[in-house]
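Our collaborator T.R. sent over the components below with a one-line note: 'Predict the complex.' Nothing else. No constraints on interfaces, no templates requested, no preferences about which chain binds where. So this is a plain run: every listed entity goes in together, and whatever single assembly comes back becomes the starting point for the next discussion.
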Amino acid sequence: AQKVTQAQTEISVVEKEDVTLDCVYETRDTTYYLFWYKQPPSGELVFLIRRNSFDEQNEISGRYSWNFQKSTSSFNFTITASQVVDSAVYFCALRRGAEKLVFGKGTKLTVNP
Amino acid sequence: NAGVTQTPKFQVLKTGQSMTLQCAQDMNHEYMSWYRQDPGMGLRLIHYSVGAGITDQGEVPNGYNVSRSTTEDFPLRLLSAAPSQTSVYFCASSPLRGGRGEQFFGPGTRLTVL
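Returned assembly:
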């Protein structure tokens, strides 16, 4: 069975703080893909990143960085110097094969000015 | 490209009524799917399709029907609406091969069943 766990339901930080969103996944597949999506208050889902199971390199995109560790089945997301515009619900997701996407329950991040 | 479009954006139904949520994409994607989003539950897969004429059940299919007669359209039918189907519904599409592997999501339909 596939499962994604985002243990942090809600996180509140003050602007400019760094924040890490945790994601732990379960799968028996050797080939799989991990995703992060952002859902701002307006409600749409915004794709942030995809990682495949063969690529454990960490990735940085501006203030965003992702740490993928197969040994601990984790795919954590860090926002450096958070901003109010980062306030959103963030979803981690796992995909097996070509199609099915399994989502975690999401972490609501609030960045206060 | 319009991407993935969904209509209506909002809908209120009475218990027992039926309706169809529309989803269309203009990216020639083979894969399309429907999710529902409930508070604290994340997104859960209702039904999906890997091409015209092919559909399959996801995690929470009861009370919903789908069909895929064309590549572009993937409507979701509520047969007899129940209050438990009050939710936000998202349609998504993606190519089966190539691309970045992301699913493209529509803007969502907020459904209330009274």
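Summary for T.R.: The radius of gyration of chain B is 13 Å.
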